[in-house]
């Protein structure tokens, strides 16, 4: 049996709760989303490893009704859905291009020292249970990670779902996903994972 995908994996579409710390019970939220996706014939009920986690689910034909762009190869062992209930950062590119403070509009990325303050706060949050905001080094306001404007796609949350080999989700599906989850989502597409 070959473990190579039939076609190169396009990448990953991260569907990230637009709350750095999910306000509801994220485990209940996961169960609700999975049950709904299973009912809609979008994922298989059985758990398996798709890419990284034991909690993956392979796609079924229903996924084709809710994605935009090319259909994912649902026969590939590397294609399906995974979720993450740990604090994690998601990026579409290694570089963010710019990190604009919503208050003073300073670009933290343009100053090495300021950039460092942002990344340190983010790592502190992700690894050591730190706060979910940065004291802007220019205006000294407390700014939530999500409130900054970034040059490329990124998101930070303790609840996210990853659709492997998907390029986009239909607006109708995203709206229903948000309704089921009880909070808005941010989509970040990462190429060639
Ligand atoms: Zn500022």
Keywords:
alpha+beta; 193 residues; 13 strands; single chain; binds zinc ion; 2 domains
Q: What can you see in these coordinates?
A:
- The chain has 2 domains: 11-88 and 154-191, 2-Layer Sandwich (TATA-Binding Protein), CATH 3.30.310; 96-150, no CATH class.
- A hairpin with a 6-residue loop joins β7 and β8 (142-144).
- It is 22% helix and 25% strand.
- It contains 3 helices and 13 strands.
- It has helices spanning 26-39, 112-128, 171-181; strands at 11-17, 57-58, 67-68, 80-84, 88-91, 99-100, 133-135, 142-144, 149-150, 154-157, 160-164, 168-169, 185-191.
- The model has no long low-confidence stretch (mean pLDDT 92).
- The longest helix has 17 residues, at 112-128.
- The strands form 5 sheets. It has a 5-stranded antiparallel beta sheet.
- By secondary structure, it is an alpha+beta fold.
- The structure holds zinc ion.
Short overview:
The chain has helices at 26-39, 112-128, 171-181, and strands spanning 11-17, 57-58, 67-68, 80-84, 88-91, 99-100, 133-135, 142-144, 149-150, 154-157, 160-164, 168-169, 185-191.
């Amino acid at each position: 049996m070959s473990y190579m995908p039939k076609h190169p994996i396009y990448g990953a579409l991260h569907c990230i709760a637009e709350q750095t710390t999910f306000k509801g019970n994220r485990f209940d939220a996961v169960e609700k989303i999975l049950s709904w996706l299973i009912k809609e014939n979008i994922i298989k009920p059985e758990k398996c490893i798709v890419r990284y986690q034991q909690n993956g689910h392979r796609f079924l034909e229903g996924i084709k009704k809710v994605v935009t762009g090319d259909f994912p190869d649902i026969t590939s062992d590397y294609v399906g859905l995974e979720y993450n209930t740990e604090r994690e950062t998601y990026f579409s590119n290694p570089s963010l291009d710019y990190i604009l403070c919503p208050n003073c509009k300073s670009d933290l990325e343009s100053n090495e020292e300021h950039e460092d303050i942002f990344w340190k706060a983010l790592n502190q949050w992700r690894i050591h249970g730190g706060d979910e905001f940065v004291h802007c080094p220019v205006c000294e306001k407390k700014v939530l990670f999500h409130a900054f404007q970034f040059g490329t796609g990124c998101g930070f949350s303790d609840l996210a779902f990853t659709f492997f080999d998907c390029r986009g989700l239909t607006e109708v599906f995203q709206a229903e996903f948000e309704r089921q989850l009880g909070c808005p989502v941010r989509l970040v597409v990462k190429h060639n994972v």
